[in-house]
# Entry
Amino acid sequence: MLKAFWGGPSGWRDRQHQDGTIDWIAPDGQTYHTTPGGRLLFPELCAPTAPVTTTGPVPPAHTSGLRMPRRTTTRAEHRARRIHDERELKSAAAEPEDEPPF
# Structure
């Protein structure tokens, strides 16, 4: 696989063909021709494919309403509220309900 940081106009480029072969073009212009590894084991699978025909434009994805919901409070407000609630619970538990019997 060609790494993204090796590509670009001054880096390595590739040209892929329908039969699965790839021409790798080095930065200096040298071309390296490779064939698929499975060509020796499964030669019947390396036949060129038929031209792809499209049936029309791709329908738009219906994702316009699928966004993350907006927060009703900020994270800081939510954290302060949790701390306040926790302190109220702890102070209520710390207060004795009855006086000691002695």
Notes: The longest helix spans residues 75-94. The mean pLDDT is 81.
